[in-house]
Amino acid sequence: MGAAASTPTALQTCLNNACSGCTGCVGYPSDLLYQTKWVKPYNLAIDITPVAVVKPKTAADVSAFVQCAAANDVSVQAKSGGHSYANFGLGGASGELVVDLSNMKSFSMDNTTWQATIGAGSLLGDITPQLIDNGNRAFAHGVCPGVGIGGHATVGGLGPMSRMWGAATDHIVEVEVVTANGTIVRANESQNSDLFFAIRGAASSFGIVTEFVMRTHPAPGDVVQYTYDFTFGDAATLAKVYATWQAIVGDPDLDYRFGTEFIVHPLGVLITGTFYGNKSEWTASGIPARLPQNGNGTVVVNDWLGALAQDAQNEALYLSNVATNFYSKSLGFRRDDLFSDAATVDLFQYIESANKGTLVWFIIFDASGGYLMDIPQNATAFAHRDKVMFYQSYAIDLLALSATTKSFLTNFHTRVLDHLPSNESYGTYSGYVDMAIAEPQEEYYMTNLPLLQELKSKWDPDQVFRNPQSIKPVS
After folding, report:
1. φ, ψ for residue 347 (rounded to 5)?
2. Closest among 239, 255, 257 to 365, alpha carbons compared
3. Which of 44, 190, 363, 468 has the smallest set of CB atoms within 10 Å of its CB?
C-alpha cells in the first residue's frame, strides 16, 4: 500500500481498508514517483492526476473499490493496457479513481466449446500465444501487443482480421462486470442482456469488466502479407496511388479475408495488406493484380503468429507503447463517402505543402467493412457497421505539443469534411478518442445513443463511471 496523506481522507481510509494491508494495492499523489510508478500516462500532452490508483487482484477487490468511490462521490475508470489517446483509462481528467487491472491476467480454454476465459488486464501480446498453445485458436483483435483486452474489446476492437471475423467485441460471449453499486454480475445474451449490449462498445460508461468469455476460431494456416512502399513522390503521384488503393477498399465484393492500410508518412506512403489464405488463394482473389505496381512491393507468406508479429512491426511505425506528446483526429467513411479523384489530389497537395510543426506524423486509412457490415447496427453498442474505411491522423512532438502540429491535423480533418456530402453525420470509432469533437457521444454511438442513455439511467444514474466523453443518463 502506498503512503497516503498524513490525515487520510474518507476515500483513502476506505481504499486502505479494502486493501487490507496488501502491498502494491493503492497509490496516492503524495507517493514518491506517483506519475511514473502508478499513473503511467500514455499521452503526455494531457496532464492528469488521479485521486488514487488501485490494483485489484479479484472481482471482489474491484467491487470494494467501486463502492469506496461511489460512497465518496468520486468517479471511476478502469485501465487495462492504458493506450487511450486521451488517457481515459486514467479518468480523462484529474481527481478520479483509477482501477488498474494489470494484476488480472487469468486465462483458460474450454476444449469442448473452444471458448476462452480471459482476465480483463491481459494484453493482446500475451493472449495470442495463449490461444495458440491451447488448441491453436484465434479471434479478431488489433495487433499492438501492449494494448489491453479490457479497453480494446469493449470499444469494438478493430484489427486486420476484422473484415473476416468481425470486431473483438463481436467475439464476447459473456462478461463478469462490476456495476455502479459494486455488484458483481454476469452478462450475456440471456442474462442482463441490456448491460451486455452496452458493454460491447461502451463499457467505460457502464461498469468494469473483470473477465471475458470469448468465442474463438481455428487459427488460420498460411497468411499472405503484402507491403508496398513508395517514397518521395509528389502530391499528384501519391494521389494516384491512393486512388488505386481506395478503389479496392470500396469494392462491395472485396474478399473478406483481406485487410489493408494506407499510411501517409513524411517520406511517402506505405500500403500493407494481410490476406488470410495461401498464396494460390491470394492470386485467385484477383487482389494482387489490382494493387499498385509501380513502387517497392513485397509479398511474404507467414504462419499466424508470424503474420501478427509482422503486423505489430508495421503498426509500431506510428503507434507504440512509449508515452509521448501526441495529437490525433479520425473519421469513419461509408462507401458513398469515399473521395473523388479531385478531392484526393487536393488532400495530398495540402499534406505536401502544410507546415507540420513536427517530423513525426502519420495519416492512416484503414479498411473496414466485410463481415462487420453483416452484423446489424443495433446488435451491440459499437455502431459503425456501415463503414468501409476509417482514417486517423497521428502526430508526435517530442517536448510539448505545438499549436502548429495540432493545426496541421485539424486543418486536414476540416478539408476531409469539406469533400464529404454535406449535412451528414459520419461518426468515428471511440477507440480513436478526440477531445476536440463537439458532440462525441453522437459521433461514437450514432443511432445507438438514445438506448445507451436509457441504459445509463438504469445501470449508473449517478455517473459513477465517467470520463469527459462518457454517456450521460436521460435528462
Report:
1. -65, -40
2. 239
3. 190
